[in-house]
Write a structure and sequence with these properties.
This protein is α/β, with parallel strands linked by helices. The chain contains six helices and seven strands; from the N terminus they run H-E-E-E-H-E-E-H-E-H-E-H-H. 38% of the residues lie in helices and 19% in strands. The protein is globular.
Length: 176
């Protein structure tokens, strides 16, 4: 479903930049729930775009856009959580990660994982659009905070972080 939306956005002549807001699992042992990752590069494990783009197609954020957006996000959440810009992986479906897979991702330097971002980055690169993703960390499977437990963990902090992210994006969009 997201690939369809990403394709329409990135193929539109009227769209120049796309900012993705999402949640993902934390792989790195340096992240905590509610931390934010603004990755500049994604490891494509999605299998979604193979019909359209080869798996080698790059999945990278626009570095200038990422840098600009990061400044706004950092200002809003600096006293709440840590902000990262680590490697991100996109997997094909929810909860497909097992312990050996997660350890392999950790050893490859992956900081976070979701199901959509590399699809957007690859499409944006293909259609010469600027894109950046903001991933708020939810579960931490290698640290014992599993998805179903993460849904109830740190709700007030996550709410404040989400509000900060939205405020930052709105300020970015309407800045000079």
């Amino acid at each position: 479903m997201f690939a369809d939306i990403g394709y329409v956005l990135c193929n539109s002549r009227n769209v120049e930049e796309v900012i993705f807001l999402g949640t993902g699992g934390g792989i790195s042992l340096d992240v905590k729930t509610a931390d934010i990752n603004i990755p500049t590069t994604c490891l494509r494990l999605d299998k979604v775009l193979e019909i359209m783009l080869p798996l080698e197609a790059p999945a990278k954020a626009d570095k200038d856009l990422a840098s600009q957006v990061r400044k706004f996000v950092e200002e809003e959440v600096k006293d709440l959580v840590n902000l990262h810009d680590g490697l991100h992986a996109t997997v094909p479906f929810l909860l497909c990660e097992n312990k050996p897979f997660l350890v392999d991702m950790l050893n490859r330097g992956v900081l976070s994982v979701d199901m959509e971002l590399s699809v957007l980055y690859a499409l944006a690169n293909h259609f010469s659009k600027k894109a950046v993703g903001i991933i708020r960390i939810d579960d931490l499977p290698l640290q014992g905070l599993l998805l179903w437990d993460a849904l109830e963990d740190s709700l007030e902090l996550k709410s404040r972080v989400h509000t900060g992210i939205l405020r930052a994006v709105i300020q970015f969009v309407f800045s000079d």
